[in-house]
Amino acid sequence: MNESVEIMVQRIEVPELVPARMLNEYAYCPRLFFLEWVDSLWASSSDTAEGDRRHRRVDAGGGAAPLPDEGELKAARSVDLASERLGITAKLDLLEGSDGGVVPIDTKKGRPGRDGTPWEADAVQVCAQVLLLREHGYAVERGEIFYAETRQRVAVEVTPELVTRTMRIVAEARATATRLAPPPPLRSDPKCPRCSLVGICLPDEVNMLAARQDSRPRRLMAADPDAVPLYVMEPGSVVGIDGGRLTVSKYREMLASVRLIDVLKVCAYGNVQVTAQAMRALFERDVDILHFSYGGWLLGMTTGLPSKNVMLRIRQTTAAARGGLGEPRRMIAGKIKNCRVLLRRNGGDAVTRRVAQLAALADQARQAEEAATLLGIEGTAARLYSMLSRRCSPVRTACQARASAGCGTAGRRQTR
Fold first, then answer.
1. What is the Cα–Cα distance from 122 to 162, expressed in whole angstroms?
2. Are residue 281 and residue 353 in the same domain, yes or no?
3. Which residue from 267, 282, 185, 198 is spatially nearest to 233, judged by alpha carbons?
4. Neighbour count for residue 322 (Cβ, 10 Å)
5. Residue 334 vs residues 328, 366, 371: alpha-carbon distances, Å
6. What is the pLDDT confidence band of residue 322, given thresholds at 50, 70 and 90?
7. Within this chain, do residues 284 and 357 fall inside the same structural domain, yes or no?
8. What is the mean pLDDT of the chain?
9. Mind listing the pLDDT tens digit for each residue in 246-283?
């Protein structure tokens, strides 16, 4: 079993072509490149939404892009190019003819550097586009970046140093993609707070736990989604899609219509149908459908593809095949200690003498030598916690406090 897992890990294949946009991400932050390209993780933010808006026109395409010996190129949008020799693929936002040659123009939502020059990551991306155009026979002297915030074009001079830097990044990115774990986060970098993946990357937390930084973590605020769950409780209703809105109808009578972007989850109670078209739209936005009984019991969940943390799954499979108990021991011991803390905080004298048993079970979990023993310790701790938690239920404690303050019969009824 161990050999098969190791062979599987060694045979990880990287796509032959690295997108030029991913070279931009690698130059900006190698960890961001890994999370997006290898793990296929993505999180939207106001910056990414603004970038999408700025690209609407160029993404629509348009214009002809003949090869150099097929005619003159005037202007073309959304042009795809690839080269196996370079190991790069790219989609050019705009390609313009100029003095017998062509100029690739990439659109960015922000502004150039303070000295008016393009950012290094942007220059690397445009350099990759220039190299692709030259590979296909076009005459290209320079590239340009259109920064939408300042509405100016900034030239990118393709120097030998920039070409060397770009090809080095191609090699480094491919090598990074073969690893089982992402690169370490940047250290106290000003790029992190505005990164859309900061809530996934957790740069300061990871660095602190890995002893890579001594300072306290910054207060990096992950995005708080504006979407909320949609509860559908009308028996016989149908959830459908109409443009960008979810509709709830019954016998063709419209009951509700909400914007798809405002839906976090769909909670269907009882006999509620969801059309195939609505499911597909929900899956595209990573919105799950939870199916409940009329009484509110969760029966199942309809979801799209599972998490795309490919390398994480490989590491989990490898660890399971090796049969090590290090991580399970620490995890279960931590769970038991957490239960003990909760009981000590909320249990009072009623549980004081029994929480010592949980401390002993946590010690036993850390020293367990077999999986069956570890499972037994976990079950014992769960049973003990369940028994003791009844004596310090937050609902019971609150109701008792209200009853002593004069809540009377209502408080006693809720307690029972």
1. 11
2. no
3. 267
4. 12
5. 10, 9, 16
6. confident
7. no
8. 83
9. 999 999 899 999 999 999 999 999 999 999 999 999 99
Summarize pLDDT for 197-237 with one digit per residue, the tens: 888 888 888 888 777 666 676 766 666 778 899 999 999 99
CA distance 268 to 266: 6
Core vs surface per residue 366-395: b (16+ CB within 10 A) or e: bebeeeeebeebbebbeebbeebbebbeee
The last residue of a domain, from among 143, 177, 211: 177
Asked if 272 and 239 touch (Cβ cutoff 8 Å), the reply is: yes
Task: Report the CATH number at residue 274.
Answer: 3.100.10.20
Cα 79 to Cα 95: distance, rounded to the nearest angstrom = 7
d(CA 80, CA 25): 19
> Based on the domain organization, do 115 and 261 belong to the same domain?
no
Q: At what angle do helices 160-177 and 120-135 cross, to 10 degrees?
A: 100
> Are 382 and 298 found together in one domain?
no
Q: Are residues 359 and 269 in the same domain?
A: no
Angle at CA of residue 62, ends 56 and 63, nearest 5°: 145
Residues 261 and 346 in one domain: no
How many domains, in total, are found in the chain? 3
Asked if 132 and 171 sit in the same domain, the reply is: yes
Give the phi and the psi of residue 369 in degrees, each rounded to 5: -105, -10
Residue 195 placed within a domain:
no
Among 267, 302, 337, the domain boundary falls at: 302
What is the pLDDT averaged over residues 29-33?
Answer: 95
Number of residues assigned to the chain: 416
Mean of the pLDDT values across residues 88-100? 89
Q: In terms of residue numbers, what domain contains 415?
A: 324-416
State the pTM of this model. 0.62
Paired tokens of 279:
């499911």
Q: 170 and 264 in one domain? A: no
With contact defined as beta carbons under 8 Å apart, do 169 and 26 qualify?
yes
What is the C-alpha separation between 310 and 104, in angstroms, rounded?
Answer: 34
H-only helix segments in 293-393: 310-322, 326-346, 355-367, 371-389
One-letter amino acid of 109: K
Q: Comparing C-alpha atoms, which of 273, 213, 267 is closest to residue 241?
A: 273
